[in-house]
Design goal:
Layout (H helix, E strand, L loop, with lengths): L1 E4 L2 E3 L11 H6 L1 H8 L3 E3 L5 E3 L17 E4 L4 E6 L5 H19 L3 E5 L5 H6 L3 E3 L10 H16 L5 E7 L3 H17 L5 H15 L5 H15 L9 E9 L9 E9 L2 E5 L2 E4 L5 E5 L8 E3 L2 E9 L4 E10 L7 E5 L17 E7 L17 E2 L4 H4 L25 H7 L1
Parallel strand pairs: 1-5, 6-9, 7-8, 7-9
Antiparallel strand pairs: 1-2, 3-4, 5-6, 10-14, 10-15, 10-19, 11-12, 11-13, 11-16, 13-20, 16-17, 18-19
Helix pairs in contact: 5-6, 6-7, 6-8
Pfam families: PTEN_C2
Organism: Henosepilachna vigintioctopunctata
InterPro entries: C2_domain_sf (IPR035892), Prot-tyrosine_phosphatase-like (IPR029021), Tensin_C2-dom (IPR014020), Tensin_phosphatase (IPR029023), Tensin_PTEN_phosphatase (IPR051484)
Length: 419
């Protein structure tokens, strides 16, 4: 397990003195000063901790399943568990984290859980707020606003309060919330929080690195742009008419059998037929608004996912998430690096892209995309294409079970009001 004070590792034994009280610390102050005199770092509360880890053969640094605990700022802490953590190591980590946090902050901390609800969290921590969202997806834009407001409300109620961000698996979730809150505090905070914003940026650079999921990056940019008014809010719905894919995903004999699914929030709205895209086809277009159909009305958080229909099932080709409030044009383009799944899949062409075409109303027709080579497609009733993607939170691997809490969130109208 690795502990960090102001983004630097801290020895666990200084946190976890079994049977020692604050009076004991005062009595042994001189002895402790001697221990830490060679290498010290201040955690923002006027107390020095060692900054160098002491790995042993039995507990190597960075061992699978280990927990990372870092101070993002003086009043925000991040706790992260890798996906390789077993149920046992996760429970033990929570017990250790609870002991450390209570020893340091009493019950003046709130755990903001960014992943699936777990009963062990509520068993070990007095204050837990479930604010998680589905894995491999960006958080709903309304949730970003809600989470930032809840953190701010908790911290502003008492100067001794601490916010603890908890995540398991990919570190993107920590990065998204820290980046969003950094933007939120720059607009809604005061001048005294300037140092906190510096600490948050340093945490992102040193502990998270670049946010990997393209939709996560997009949603952080949305949030920043809406707060700073550099993005003009679109309150009207959009009507999707066509989706054009440039390049041929090479999933089967140099081509693919592609079909699209469109979701609004977690509700499936549309499933296309299966398009037989052969090797050498430079682009193909899915006509969402056909001769007998109107444009597909979209409003709020939208997910478009493309699959390859294989003989045994289906494979994800690309996915893209966007929010209609940030779309002000009738064409929305995504390069390969802006597409979830495809950005790291060599089967998707390096110069590939996706374009979405909209109209103002269900019957209003903007110029359709340029004609593309005819691609055979089928609307055959297929259970594989009909099946909806799992949109729920990560499955719990906690033997104690989970509470099945709901994600927090506002309606789109609430988002407009808040921003």
């Amino acid at each position: 397990m690795k502990i960090y004070a102001q983004n630097r590792p801290v020895d666990l034994f200084l946190w976890n003195w079994s049977g020692h009280t604050h009076e004991d610390v005062d009595k042994d102050g001189a002895e402790m000063q001697k221990i830490i005199s060679s290498s010290t770092s201040y955690n923002g509360f006027g107390e020095a901790f060692t900054t160098q880890p002491r790995p042993t053969k039995n507990s190597p640094r960075g061992m699978p399943g280990s927990m990372d605990l870092s101070y993002v700022t003086e009043r925000i802490i991040a706790i992260w568990f890798p996906s390789s953590s077993t149920s046992h190591s996760y429970r033990q980590g929570q017990k250790q984290a609870s002991h450390m946090l209570r020893h340091k902050h009493g019950n003046n901390y709130m755990v903001f859980n960014l992943t699936e609800p777990k009963r062990v969290l509520k068993n070990e921590h007095k204050h837990v707020q479930e604010v998680g969202w589905a894995r491999n997806l960006a958080p709903p834009l309304e949730n970003l606003c809600s989470i930032c407001k809840e953190i701010e409300t908790w911290l502003s109620a008492d100067e001794h309060r601490i916010a603890v961000l908890h995540a398991k698996g990919n570190k993107d979730k920590l990065g998204v919330i820290v980046a969003a809150y950094m933007n939120y505090s720059s607009i809604c905070g005061n001048a005294e929080q300037a140092l906190d914003r510096f600490s948050m940026r340093k945490f992102l650079e040193e502990n998270i690195g670049s946010i990997s999921l393209p939709s996560n990056k997009r949603y952080v940019d949305y949030f920043s742009g809406l707060l700073s008014h550099t993005i003009r809010i679109n309150t009207a719905p959009l009507y999707l008419t066509h989706v054009t894919v440039f390049g041929t995903p090479a999933f089967e004999q140099g081509g693919c059998r592609a079909f699209l699914k469109v979701y609004q929030g977690q509700v499936p709205l549309y499933t296309s037929g299966v398009y037989a895209v052969a090797r050498g086809v430079h682009q193909f277009t899915v006509n969402v608004a056909g001769e007998q159909r109107k444009g597909l009305q979209l409003r709020g958080d939208i997910l478009i996912k493309c699959y390859h229909r294989s003989e045994s099932g289906r494979d994800a080709v690309f996915a893209c998430q966007f929010h209609t409030c940030a779309v002000t044009d009738y064409t929305l383009s995504f390069t390969r690096q802006e597409l979830d799944v495809a950005y790291k899949d060599p089967r998707f062409p390096k110069d590939g892209a996706v374009e979405l075409h909209f109209s103002q109303g269900p019957d209003i027709r903007h110029p359709a995309p340029a004609p593309t080579p005819a691609v055979p497609f089928s609307f055959a009733d297929d259970a594989v294409t009909r099946a909806d993607s799992p949109m729920n939170l990560e499955e719990s691997d906690d033997d104690d079970g989970s509470d099945g809490g709901k994600c927090c969130g506002f309606t789109q109208d609430d988002l407009f009001f808040e921003l």
